[in-house]
Write a structure and sequence with these properties.
- By secondary structure, the chain is α/β, with parallel strands linked by helices.
- The strands form 5 sheets. The chain has a 6-stranded mixed sheet, with helices on both faces.
- The structure holds zinc ion.
Length: 400
Amino acid sequence: MKILNQQIMKNHNLKKIFSLILRHGSISRIELAALTELSKTTISSLVDSLIQGNFIMDTGEITTGRQGRKPSLLRVNAEKNIVAVINWRLEELELSLVDMNGQVIYYQQQEIGGQTDFAELIPQAYYEVLEPQIGRRNFLGLCLIVPSMLDVSSYRMISTVLPVREEDDVLRQIHEKLKGKLTAVFNDTACYAYAENVFSQREFDTFLFININKGVGAVIVQDGTMIKGEAGMRSQLGHFSIDRYGSPCVCGNRGCLENLIGESALLSRAEKLGIAKELLPKNEKISFEYLGKLADGGDRTAMDFVSGLAADLAFAISNVLVIYNTDHIIIGGKGQRLGRYYLQQLEMHLKKQGFFIFVSRAGVRYTDLSDDAIMRGAARYYIDKFYQFFEDMSGFFVIE
Ligand SMILES: [Zn+2]
């Protein structure tokens, strides 16, 4: 029992000093001791272990003439250690390797093209595309991101975006084929929100993060911590009803936000308004990017359409703010391709509805992170929360 406790304590301290090195970029042993209140001997021994495991490196001594010898600085050995991440989207798989600094060092997109045998497709993509790229680096784990609610106790996915039924039990099958490799399955919105929390430049640390893609999701980050919404089981903004007499949704509700403003809903929305031909004269594919370019370019039809999308989202946000009030709303996902006019309309509509004190203070902005934030967020979340140094992670598996 005592040995076990010591091991847990050691792992805890290894993680603590590793994240301090990560956060500071470079730091000395003495500074680590001061920040952690661990003894210099303990710090030295933990640092030696991390250096031997190739997780960090000693950059060598830095000397300056006048002040004499300065302690040598430690850095994370970023490129040597990677997390593999697969982002499962409706139309494609995004396959990536993320280093310990949170940089995507390898990326490839693979079209799904109507295939539905995901229990074959996803393991195959890992073995054929990602594994050969890992080379001699330390493999820390494989994370699968899904646009889906996750029932943690039954391993089931409940997705209104992917063509997967709950009873398919596809995660268990994927896990079987990726035994010893797949270490975590995460909800997509949570990964975006985590990336926003860790990597973006902000002057506040409480905000509502809204992911707009084929579906719509949201996570509240309060004082730098995600409010337990990781698996998407705590809240589902996409299924917030903005019209209780609206069309029924597969979730059981009516008039769900996702079915009105998600990327999959754009064509039917345009058809209902009778403007599909006008918006898409040459049978183009209607996407957020397409609409955003038209609207920002001054196309009147697209501007009205985009303004309608913004009004619907603003209505949902104004109601969310009555339940959880925050001044900061960040929009991420492909929805940010809707462009400047959409954001401007969103702010305008938000000021016009809802509880005036709350909405008058609320500001909306797009994330300053690029599309790969979701994969960076997944990798960092896994490292911060689950990865254990010097433990065999091949038997580890978490759904969250
Ligand atoms: Zn719904």
